[in-house]
Amino acid sequence: MGKNLMELTDANFASTVESSAIPVMVDFWAPWCGPCRFIAPLVEELAGDFQGKIQVGKVNVDENPRVASQFNVRSIPTLLFFKNGQVVDVIRAAVPKDQIQKKIEDVLAR
């Protein structure tokens, strides 16, 4: 996992995401998911680009099914955007970096 990424689990998700003073982007993924591997370097780049403005975490859905179920993640990759502990936006597919960046900027502007 990259230096700007947090590993989120069933155990630490609520305390990490809900208590964050800044917005959080969470990447729900699995090692066997091709599209997840496609966006992983984009997510890591954006974590660096927006360091200090957003936190970026990853949830392996195979190892953390409770969190995935709690947020109705039925397909991966799914990116959820949290602000003040609440989901404020979502991307449910592998999309280009500029689309993810636009969502981050929209969340920060709210």
Helix-strand layout with pairing:
Blueprint: E1 5-7, H1 13-17, E2 24-29, H2 34-49, E3 55-60, H3 65-70, E4 78-83, E5 86-91, H4 97-109
Parallel strand pairs: 1-3, 2-3
Antiparallel strand pairs: 2-4, 4-5
Number of strands: 5
Termini distance?
29 Å
Low-confidence stretches: none
Rounded to an integer in angstroms, the radius of gyration calculated over CA atoms is 12 Å
Assign an overall shape: globular
Widest sheet, order of strands = 1-3-2-4-5
> Which architecture does the CATH hierarchy give at level 2?
3-Layer(aba) Sandwich
Question: Could you state the CATH homologous superfamily?
Answer: Glutaredoxin
Indicate the mean pLDDT: 95
**What is the name of the CATH topology?**
Glutaredoxin
CATH domain class: Alpha Beta
* Main pleated-sheet profile: 5 strands, mixed
Strand content: 15-25%
- Tally the helices: what do you get? 4
Q: What percentage of residues falls in helices of 4 or more residues? A: 25-40%
Output the structural class. alpha/beta
User: Could you spell the SSE succession in H and E letters?
Assistant: EHEHEHEEH
- How many structural units, i.e. domains? 1
Structure, described:
- This protein is of the alpha/beta class.
- It has a single domain (5-109), classed as Glutaredoxin, CATH 3.40.30.10.
- Helix content is 36%, strand content 25%.
- The chain is built from 4 helices and 5 strands.
- The protein has helices at 13-17, 34-49, 65-70, 97-109; strands at residues 5-7, 24-29, 55-60, 78-83, 86-91.
- It has a 5-stranded mixed sheet with strand order 1-3-2-4-5.
- A hairpin with a 2-residue loop joins strand 4 (78-83) and strand 5 (86-91).
- The radius of gyration is 12 Å and the shape is globular.
- It starts with a strand and ends with a helix.
- The mean pLDDT is 95.
